[in-house]
């Protein structure tokens, strides 16, 4: 086992072993190493004798080299290369039989399953009766079949006694057992994506509930597939779920108007997505041209990675909007305008254009902080700093106000409407209209999220049926809720 668990292939290609260089079962010849007696003793876990040179690394059994190459490819999302390698090995040893061939077959299926998983094409599909791996149905079916294959290898390895390679059987059984846990984890995360996809039709999304569910899955499978040979697989799995957890936490924290926590999680997700993206940048694929010649380009990332980038960018736009005042204190007005213009969607730009076009007196996003013990105002505050809890109109601050500070004279009216029309606003769909003839002003209100209310104020009479105002508020509210980003989990969907 010591030799079998020793030294990972840093370069995926380095682990490939050609048929012509194959040594007697279990070892790969390496120049400059200690003699065969010492190598064999070390492979069996024995110490070096006095005077023996200690090699830089123990010899790598052929099977281990194949496995390391396979998982190195999977770790960098190179599914086709991973599948091709194990299929070639299986073809070269088709007369061997036993658990090695069975595991190679399962690994080929694992590569196909991983490709399907990262493509997210299984979302929204119903169970069907098409052929294995070609059907467009539940990823659960694919992984369940794979789990059954791996279980057979586990049982075969446990039942193996004696023989020339008992350590190999033990290793294959051990790896298969850990891969069973990996497959189960994949199924649960795939179900998690399915749940998020179905939430795209909901009025609001409870991000805290999603975070709790994701963390329970992680806790369940923590360190369940930790073998060194599986480390590339474990690392890629951890990278994915870390990014997802950071983004969902940030989404929940932005909706609670928690500046520092949402910023930290957004930054962590951004850093890890950069690390992930570099994996694809470093991989090049060669394209042959019709009339000769060839060119190289970076590998196209899978849909899952692109979707996580999309979610991050949406949250970045929302963060920039909700915390605009705190962020604008750190730079000039012109630079802030240029930075927010890059956001997608550019909510600040949309509101500014609307105000100019329809001569609105004010557009504000109001945060209802009643019951929030931690509320201290814009930006970051030291956790031990003291500030009295807001009272009266200060319980309804405008976290965003355009074109300038909130209109103080209108605020009592705004709060009165919010209080009187609470049930309508709490549907998170309705637009409330109110005209006050005393001040000759019209108010339109809607609630995109439980703690936030959008208000548009005109210092003139406006119809409650004006489609321009209604569509603007609906569009802005929808952009803040943004269920489309969850709908876009499914490839080809709009969002």
UniProtKB/TrEMBL annotation:
One of its GO terms (cellular component) is KICSTOR complex. Pfam families: C12orf66_like (PF09404). Residues 1-48 are annotated as: Disordered. One of its GO terms (biological process) is cellular response to amino acid starvation. Keywords: Lysosome, Membrane. It comes from the Eukaryota. It is found in: Lysosome membrane. The keyword Membrane applies. The keyword Membrane applies. As part of the KICSTOR complex functions in the amino acid-sensing branch of the TORC1 signaling pathway. Recruits, in an amino acid-independent manner, the GATOR1 complex to the lysosomal membranes and allows its interaction with GATOR2 and the RAG GTPases. Functions upstream of the RAG GTPases and is required to negatively regulate mTORC1 signaling in absence of amino acids. In absence of the KICSTOR complex mTORC1 is constitutively localized to the lysosome and activated. The KICSTOR complex is also probably involved in the regulation of mTORC1 by glucose. Belongs to the KICS2 family. Part of the KICSTOR complex composed of KPTN, ITFG2, KICS2 and SZT2. SZT2 probably serves as a link between the other three proteins in the KICSTOR complex and may mediate the direct interaction with the GATOR complex via GATOR1. The KICSTOR complex interacts directly with the GATOR1 complex and most probably indirectly with the GATOR2 complex in an amino acid-independent manner. This is KICSTOR subunit 2.
């Amino acid at each position: 086992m010591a030799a079998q668990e020793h030294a990972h292939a840093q370069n995926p290609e380095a682990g490939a072993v050609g048929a012509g260089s194959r040594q007697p079962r279990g070892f790969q010849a390496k120049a400059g190493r200690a003699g065969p007696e010492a190598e064999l003793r070390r492979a069996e876990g024995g110490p070096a004798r006095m005077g023996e040179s200690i090699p830089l690394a123990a010899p790598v059994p052929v099977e281990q080299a194949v496995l390391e190459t396979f998982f190195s490819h999977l770790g960098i999302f190179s599914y086709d290369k991973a599948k091709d390698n194990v299929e070639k090995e299986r073809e070269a040893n088709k007369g061997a039989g036993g658990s090695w061939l069975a595991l190679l077959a399962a690994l080929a299926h694992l590569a196909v399953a991983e490709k399907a998983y990262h493509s997210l094409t299984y979302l929204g599909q119903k169970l069907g009766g098409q052929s294995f791996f070609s059907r467009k149905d539940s990823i659960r079916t694919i992984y369940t079949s794979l789990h059954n294959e791996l279980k057979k290898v586990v049982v075969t390895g446990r039942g193996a006694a004696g023989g020339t390679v008992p350590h190999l059987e033990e290793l294959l059984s051990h790896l298969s057992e850990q891969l069973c846990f990996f497959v189960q984890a994949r199924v649960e995360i795939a179900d998690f994506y399915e749940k998020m996809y179905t939430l795209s039709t909901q009025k609001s999304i409870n991000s805290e509930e999603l975070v709790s569910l994701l963390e329970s899955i992680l806790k369940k499978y923590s360190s369940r597939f930790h073998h060194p040979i599986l480390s590339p697989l474990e690392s890629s799995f951890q990278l994915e779920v870390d990014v997802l957890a950071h983004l969902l936490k940030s989404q929940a924290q932005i909706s609670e108007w928690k500046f520092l926590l949402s910023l930290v999680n957004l930054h962590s997700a951004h850093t890890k997505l950069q690390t992930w993206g570099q994996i694809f940048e470093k991989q090049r694929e060669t394209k042959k041209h019709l009339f000769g010649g060839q060119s190289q380009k970076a590998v196209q990332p899978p849909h899952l990675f692109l979707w996580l980038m999309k979610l991050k960018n949406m949250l970045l736009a929302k963060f920039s909007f909700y915390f605009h005042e705190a962020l604008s204190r750190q730079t000039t007005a012109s630079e802030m305008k240029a930075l927010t213009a890059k956001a997608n969607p550019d909510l600040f730009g949309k509101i500014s254009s609307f105000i100019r076009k329809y001569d609105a007196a004010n557009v504000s996003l109001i945060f209802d902080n009643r019951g929030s013990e931690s509320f201290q105002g814009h930006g970051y505050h030291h956790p031990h700093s003291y500030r009295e809890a807001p009272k009266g109109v200060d319980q309804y601050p405008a976290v965003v106000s355009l074109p300038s500070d909130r209109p103080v004279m209108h605020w009592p009216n705004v709060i009165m409407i919010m209080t009187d029309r609470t049930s309508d606003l709490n549907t998170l769909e309705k637009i409330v209209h109110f005209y006050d003839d005393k001040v000759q002003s019209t108010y339109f209100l809607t609630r995109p999220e439980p703690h936030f209310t959008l208000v548009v104020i005109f210092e003139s009479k406006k119809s409650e049926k004006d489609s321009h105002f209604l569509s603007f508020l609906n569009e802005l509210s929808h952009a803040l809720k943004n269920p489309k980003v969850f709908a876009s989990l499914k490839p080809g969907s709009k969002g």
